[in-house]
Design brief:
Layout (H helix, E strand, L loop, with lengths): L1 E5 L15 H14 L5 E6 L2 E6 L1 H9 L4 E6 L4 H10 L1 H4 L3 H13 L5 H8 L3 H13 L2 H8 L5 H14 L4 H11 L6 H13 L2 H8 L3 H13 L8 H24 L7 H32 L3 H12 L5
Parallel strand pairs: 2-4
Antiparallel strand pairs: 1-4, 2-3
Length: 318
């Protein structure tokens, strides 16, 4: 079906699958104001009602301009076929990696298509489909809403947050905390990358500053640290220290999961583990004391922290 439809009749059930981008939408609004809607919105008819799959920016612009009739073209006889058709046009329509993941999740979860069938109909490999399903399964509703609404840049999540959190087995609630604290603040992808490394690899004090909204102080602190030298370590002892601290942090994240694993059961492994944990128990108290003392010695100056506290009392408008 090609033609025009009443804008009030359009079903927006797939809007959550598509990314919003305010700057491009503002430019599109000007174009539509001057030239009208040149390309039809794409979707499928469901019980005679148009269901939108592509053209959400044009739809929102038309609503703002009080346009009541808009061009619409159907992509297939049913929703699954229409989604497949849209994805096969993705080279021209430039569906993002995350949009592809959302649409594939709809095909599998809502329309009950198997991975093999999705791959066959898209003329892709099953691995290609599985990678996108894996991404979709990682996103909690909070994370998905922040990214899809444009409040948190998709590229920052894929290039910075996701690699760090997957390697370090970070819990979804921690990821939600970071994204909620930094979304909508106009931060660049580079700034979010810097903050993510400090937030997920640093301590509670730094995370507390981020959660309290003092992201500018956090950025200034991290940049000052980076600017103190071209390399973080300038001699062998510093290189060994940083390497060991990184290794300890990584293993402290992994060990609780291994300690509770039901696969740790052979008598030989348990006997050796008992000897090793006995040594660790004896070292915990002096190790913790040394770590805390070093942490206090290396924290940012009180002057910086004081400035941060003042800004928290009277936060600048975002």
């Amino acid at each position: 079906m090609d033609g025009t439809v009443e804008i009030s009749s359009i079903d927006l059930r797939y809007q959550h699958c598509r990314l919003s981008h305010d700057p491009s939408e503002r430019r599109l609004l000007t174009s539509i104001l001057e030239q009208g809607i040149r390309d039809p919105l794409l979707g499928v008819l469901r019980d005679g009602r148009p269901v939108l799959l592509d053209g959400f920016k044009r739809y929102r612009c038309a609503k703002k301009l009080n346009i009541t009739q808009i061009p619409f073209a159907s992509l297939g006889p049913d929703e699954a076929s229409a989604i497949i058709a849209l994805m096969r046009l993705s080279n021209a329509k430039s569906l993002s990696f995350l949009e592809q993941a959302n649409l594939i999740d709809e095909l599998r979860r809502v329309h009950k298509l198997l991975v093999g069938e999705i791959a066959r109909r898209l003329e892709r490999s099953t691995a290609w489909v599985s990678v996108r399903l894996g991404l979709s399964s990682e996103l909690t509703p909070v994370i998905s809403e922040k990214i899809m609404s444009g409040a948190f840049p998709m590229h920052a999540y894929l290039a910075s947050v996701r690699p760090i959190t997957r390697v370090n087995k970070i819990q979804a609630t921690e990821i939600e905390g970071f994204i909620s604290a930094t979304a909508g603040k106009g931060l660049s992808v580079r700034e979010l990358d810097i903050l993510a490394k400090g937030y997920f690899k640093g301590g509670e004090e730094f995370r507390g500053h981020v959660k309290n909204g003092d992201v500018r102080w956090c950025l200034d602190t991290l940049r000052a640290t980076a600017a103190s030298g071209t390399k973080a370590a300038s001699n062998d002892d510093e290189q060994k220290l940083l390497s060991d601290l990184d290794a300890v942090q990584w293993r402290l994240r992994r060990l609780p999961r291994l300690l509770s694993s039901p696969r740790i059961q052979s008598p030989g492994a348990l006997a050796e583990a008992h000897l090793l944990t006995g040594g660790i128990v004896r070292l915990i108290v002096p190790f913790t004391k040394a770590i805390k003392e070093f942490y206090d010695r290396t924290r940012p100056s009180q002057g910086h922290c004081g400035d941060a506290a003042k800004r928290n009392e009277h936060p600048p408008s975002q």
